[in-house]
Design goal:
The protein is an alpha+beta fold and 425 residues long. The protein is built from 21 helices and 9 strands. The strands form 3 sheets. The protein has a 4-stranded mixed β-sheet with strand order 3-4-7-8. Strands 5-9-6 form a 3-stranded antiparallel β-sheet, sandwiched between helices. The chain is globular and about 65 Å long.
């Protein structure tokens, strides 16, 4: 009899695990995810948000298995999407998306690219241990490259069929990638349910069973049956609300920016492979670097957070002002502005943080404005935008209401507000 285990999951109940999934769960690379919080520093606002990438990754594979069953995938394709879903977050850095921009600037890659390299064996997280993941994948008849491609491949449905229907052939099994990372995928369905549960907010509740039961495979893509449109609308609304209420909550954002600036400062003094760290390892490393990095850790531990002193709302942006602010999306110009404000108020560097969030949102969640879904009805498909009046509103909805937010150390609030208004365009 093949070995199996039961895992009791907060969201999905008791799940039986065996075979390749069970072997991958026991690898050091996957166990590392126990040490990376799913929501970074959201527990500064939502005390229950202490769940990890480990349980989210496992939950994503559970939903992927249900999606595969609903779509009628064969055994090999089912295993491919289950394993890709299980491993999709292997490359996450400490505190999840908190340091996404810092890592992107330092390495020129995001966590998905790091994940791909771990799966294919091009990259090893642990110098003293062999990366067993490629070998295990091959042992079960899959190839590491095909598993990795489901994570980093094309995720949106092809709408060419509505432009040139006679020439459209449906592509080469794009539905497999769409299970793992698409407009409606296993990843989003798990994180919405799981994050809502652990934060205690109701915004992420979705009708999972209805979505699963109305999935349709159409011309090698994933579509939703007309009867499932309301459930999909609910899911897309939930995604937008969770970003506004939890992921980009102003206080959460400030706490995470404090940590990111502490890491930036530390890296300027001491280069190290922080993307290999777990949360506690990163904090220990920062504490060993005296001065600003250690001070930031101390403040976070005591929840002595910077405060918002000045915002430029999106509604206030003229085209000219938008063009003037655009360079601040680049790290060098942003640092220059932060330094100038600090100098004007005779405060130490790092006292002020300038946040232009939109670029970072798109790097951490490229699906945030996506509503590209095919709706199946009696053998024909229609774009979601033609069926749902919510589609355009969801695409145009702002996740946050500020274009620029300036926060400052509690000791310098009044000065920071005054000088930020003078320095920013």
């Amino acid at each position: 009899m093949k070995e199996f285990k039961f895992i009791r999951d907060t969201i999905h109940g008791t799940v039986k695990v065996s075979g390749l999934s069970l072997e991958l769960l026991d690898t050091p690379e996957f166990q590392r995810l126990r040490g990376i919080k799913q929501l970074g520093l959201a527990n500064q606002v939502y005390p229950g948000a202490n769940h990890t990438r480990f349980e989210h990754s496992f939950g994503t594979s559970v939903i992927a298995e249900k999606m595969a069953r609903s779509l009628g995938l064969d055994e090999r394709d089912s295993l491919s999407v289950i394993i890709a879903s299980l491993l999709h977050d292997l490359g996450h850095t400490p505190f999840s998306h908190t340091l996404e921009m810092v890592i992107h600037e330092a390495l020129g890659v995001d966590h998905m690219e790091i994940t791909k390299r771990i799966i294919t064996g091009e990259y090893n997280l642990f110098e003293d241990e062999e990366n067993r993941i490629p070998g295990l994948i091959e042992k079960y008849g899959l190839t590491p490259a095909e598993v990795a491609s489901l994570i980093t491949g094309r995720h949106e449905p092809c709408l060419e069929m509505f432009i040139q229907p006679k020439r459209h052939t449906g592509g080469d099994r794009g539905y497999l990638s769409m299970v793992v990372h698409g407009t409606i995928d296993a990843d989003q369905m798990d994180y919405l349910l799981r994050d809502a549960y652990h934060t205690g907010v109701a915004y992420g509740i979705i009708d999972l069973e209805r979505i699963l039961n109305t999935l349709v495979k159409y011309k090698n893509q994933i579509a939703i049956h007309r009867k499932g449109v309301t459930a999909i609308e609910g899911m897309l609304v939930a995604r937008g609300l969770m970003y506004s209420a939890v992921y980009m909550h102003k206080t959460v954002r400030i706490a995470e920016l404090m940590l990111a600036r502490g890491v930036e400062h530390a890296l300027s003094e001491c280069k190290t492979e922080i993307h290999k760290f777990m949360d506690d390892q990163l904090i220990s490393w920062l504490e060993r670097i005296k001065g600003y990095p250690a001070d930031i850790v101390r403040m976070l531990r005591r929840r002595e957070l910077y405060k918002c002193v000045y915002t430029i709302l999106r509604s206030e942006l003229t085209p000219e002002r938008k063009d003037a602010l655009l360079p601040l999306c680049g790290p060098e110009k942003r640092k220059e502005i932060e330094t100038e404000i600090c100098h004007r108020m005779h405060a130490p560097e790092g006292t002020v943080i300038v946040d232009i969030p939109m670029k970072e949102i798109l790097i951490s969640e490229p699906r945030i404005t996506k509503t590209d879904i095919l709706v199946w009805d009696n053998g024909k498909v229609t774009p979601f935008s033609k069926v749902s009046t919510l589609s355009t509103a969801l695409r145009n909805r702002y996740v946050v209401d500020w274009a620029v937010m300036v926060s400052a150390h509690p000791r310098y609030l009044n000065n920071a507000s005054r000088h930020a208004k003078k320095v920013l365009p």
